[in-house]
């Protein structure tokens, strides 16, 4: 058994510690992403010799972070484990903290006093495993013309602006 004199770790423990360190720094996910990208590139015929990756040195905008958090929450809620394992490194989610539902709603300027906010919250409480994205889409669709809860006739071509959701969110 080989032992590292300074830390008292054997070779296996050292490999495990190194792997954990590389995983926590996002290196393992980046390598997996690179390999997936190369495989797809080769399967498509290998048109060029380089694959471009997003730079992990640039931080995404708050809106992109919010969108990534919504998508990740949805994937996890649906138990899309493989999709999540591909999405997290490609979106560089390991490089920043995931936003909470409250932070996302605040970023979208959805007031805690609005009926939209209250409907999202009640939907989340009723369906404990519903993602925020699903709750938001359910609420928006229930307010749009043609839903069972809204019997008015749409006369404008601008579906979003004439809807209750459009006036609430817009």
Describe this structure in words.
By secondary structure, this protein is mainly α. The chain has three domains: 1-53, no CATH class; 58-108, no CATH class; 110-170, no CATH class. Helix content is 58%, strand content 0%. It has helices at 11-24, 27-43, 62-77, 81-90, 101-107, 115-126, 132-143, 159-162, 164-169. Helix 6 crosses helix 7. The model has no long low-confidence stretch (mean pLDDT 76).
> Describe the biggest sheet?
none
Share of helix among residues? Answer: 55-70%
Domain count: 3
Shape: elongated
**Cα-based radius of gyration, to the nearest Å:** 23 Å
Measured distance between first and last alpha carbons: 66 Å
Please trace the helix and strand order, writing H or E for each element: HHHHHHHHH
Mean pLDDT: 76
Q: Report the β-strand fraction as a percent range.
A: under 5%
Number of H- or I-type helical stretches:
9
Which structural class is indicated by helix and strand composition?
mainly alpha
Which residue ranges are poorly predicted, with pLDDT under 50 across at least 5 consecutive positions?
A: none
Number of strands: 0
Summarize the structure.
The chain is an all-alpha fold and 170 residues long. It folds into 3 domains: 1-53, no CATH class; 58-108, no CATH class; 110-170, no CATH class. The protein contains 9 helices and no strands.
Give the helix/strand layout.
Layout: H1 11-24, H2 27-43, H3 62-77, H4 81-90, H5 101-107, H6 115-126, H7 132-143, H8 159-162, H9 164-169
Properties at a glance:
170 residues; 9 helices; 3 domains; single chain; mainly alpha
């Amino acid at each position: 058994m080989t032992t590292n004199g300074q830390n008292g770790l054997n070779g296996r423990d050292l490999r495990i510690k190194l792997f954990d360190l590389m995983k926590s720094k996002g290196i393992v996910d980046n390598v997996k992403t690179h390999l997936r990208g190369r495989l797809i590139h080769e399967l498509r015929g290998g048109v060029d010799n380089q694959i471009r990756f997003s730079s992990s040195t640039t931080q995404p905008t708050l809106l992109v972070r919010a969108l990534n958090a919504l998508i990740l929450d949805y994937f996890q809620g649906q138990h899309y484990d493989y999709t999540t394992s591909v999405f997290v490194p490609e979106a560089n989610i390991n490089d920043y903290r995931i936003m909470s539902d409250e932070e996302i709603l605040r970023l979208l300027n959805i007031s805690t006093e609005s009926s939209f906010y209250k409907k999202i919250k009640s939907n989340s409480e009723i369906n404990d495993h519903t993602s925020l994205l699903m709750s938001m889409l359910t609420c928006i669709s229930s307010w749009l013309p043609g839903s069972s809860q809204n019997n008015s006739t749409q006369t404008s071509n601008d579906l979003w602006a004439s809807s209750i959701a459009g006036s609430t969110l817009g």
